[in-house]
Amino acid sequence: MAIREIRVVPDPVLRTPCDEIREITPAVRRLVDDLLETVNDPGRAGLSANQIGVSLRAFSYNIEGKIGYVLNPVLEETRGEQYGDEGCLSVPGLWYKTRRADYARVRGIDLDGNEVVLEGTGLMGRMLQHECDHLDGHVYLDRLEKEERRAALKQMRNR
C-alpha cells in the first residue's frame, strides 16, 4: 500500500474517460489498496483512480468516518438539488459553489465481484457524483455556472 501523488489540472489523465475493469488482477487489488490509503487523510471525501494516474473505473471514499471503494461505478439515480461549496484534490485550493443533485445512487462491484450499492444525500450524494464525473473525464469546474467558472479559471491562471 502506498499514498499516491494526486494529479492536478491540467494533467490529461483527468480529462480522459476511464476504462472499465474487466478482470480483478493483483494490479487492481494494489490500486484499491492505494486508493484507500490515499483517501484516508483528513479533508478527503473521495478519490478516483485517474487522480492518481490510473485510467480505470474505480474510486475510494472517506465520508463521516466510513472508508470504502467501488469498482466500475455507474451513477444510476439522482434527485433533488443542492448548491454548495465543492473542492477537488486535483484543483487544490479552489472552492466554488456547485449545483448537484442532493441524492445520488451508484452501483458497482467489489474486489470479489459482489454488487456494491452506495447512496446518500448531502456530502455523500455530492461525492458520488463528483467521483463518477472524474471517471468520465470531467472535473467539478465543468459544472460551475458561467460566472463562477470564469472566476475559477482566472484564479488558476494567476497562481
How are the secondary structure elements laid out?
Elements: H1 26-39, E1 46-48, E2 58-63, E3 66-79, E4 82-88, E5 91-100, E6 103-109, E7 115-121, H2 122-135, H3 146-157
Antiparallel strand pairs: 1-2, 2-3, 3-6, 4-5, 6-7
Cofactor: Fe(2+)
Keywords: Hydrolase, Iron, Metal-binding, Protein biosynthesis
Active site: 131
Explain this structure to me?
One of its GO terms (molecular function) is metal ion binding. Belongs to the polypeptide deformylase family. One of its GO terms (biological process) is translation. The protein is of the alpha+beta class and 159 residues long. The chain has a single domain, classed as Peptide deformylase (Peptide Deformylase). The chain is built from three helices and seven strands, in the order H-E-E-E-E-E-E-E-H-H. The strands form two sheets. The chain has a five-stranded antiparallel sheet. 32% of the residues are buried. The model has no long low-confidence stretch (mean pLDDT 96).
Mean pLDDT: 96
Task: Report the sheet-strand fraction.
Answer: 25-35%
CATH topology tier name: Peptide Deformylase
The residue ranges in which pLDDT falls below 50 over 5 or more consecutive positions are none
Please name the CATH architecture: Alpha-Beta Complex
Family: Belongs to the polypeptide deformylase family.
Catalytic activity: N-terminal N-formyl-L-methionyl-[peptide] + H2O = N-terminal L-methionyl-[peptide] + formate
Binding site for Fe cation: 88, 130, 134
EC number: 3.5.1.88
